[in-house]
Amino acid sequence: MTTATDSTPPAAPPGKRALVTGASGGLGRAISLRLARDGLQVIVHANTRLDAATALVEEITAAGGSAQAIAFDLTDRAASHAACATLLEAGPVQVLVNNAGSHADAAFPALTEAQWQGVFDVSVNGFFNVTQPLTMPMIRTRWGRIINISSVAALTGNRGQVNYAAAKGALNSATKALALELASRGITVNAVAPGIIDSGMAEATFDKALIERLVPMKRMGRAEEVAALVAFLASDEAGYISGQVISINGAMV
Prior knowledge:
Elements: E1 17-20, H1 26-37, E2 41-46, H2 50-62, E3 66-71, H3 77-88, E4 95-98, H4 113-141, E5 144-149, H5 153-156, H6 162-182, E6 187-194, E7 197-198, H7 208-214, E8 221-222, H8 223-233, E9 245-248
Parallel strand pairs: 1-2, 1-4, 2-3, 4-5, 5-6, 6-9, 7-8
Helix pairs in contact: 1-8, 3-4, 4-6
């Protein structure tokens, strides 16, 4: 519904900075490349694979973009806060893509406490440890985009992934609640829930026959397709979209 009193949404400030967690992996790499192509200054995060993050930064800068690499364990609250404090010395981070995640698949009766906790530590505690310290500086700019990478497993379930589905489901709920808190501050919060994506790891799990059975489009998605959706949600044009879980899965659901 539109009215005569509708105001123009705030435009993004110049020189936006974007942090992509878990950017040393295939999906994070594609997201980082796309955001840099769209003119953002991209902070490429890794945990242990700083060499991969550094190589990605070199690729981005060689193409004329702006990027830097950073390494820290986002399951460690103190380390995360220290890293965010360092980043904030150069100004607010106005686009945050919580992409980091982990798998520890097992049938539920055989699932260990370490497998359960480890997956939650990255997807849920990692989200909290990084997002919270960056939120208030983002609020002060009156513009921001928080994009959480979820999974179709949180929407449909998946055998052997009770821990992963539960963690991503918690992330979806956090997305909706945080969107309500930040809606009046010019900040959107959304989740992207990919299905089977060819990001470097899926080929070992999903053969061609299984993909054709599970995916109505009969193919895996491309990491670049997910990155395009993330880039849209990070843009001015998506300023009225918030609190949504958007699945990109070839019509699986």
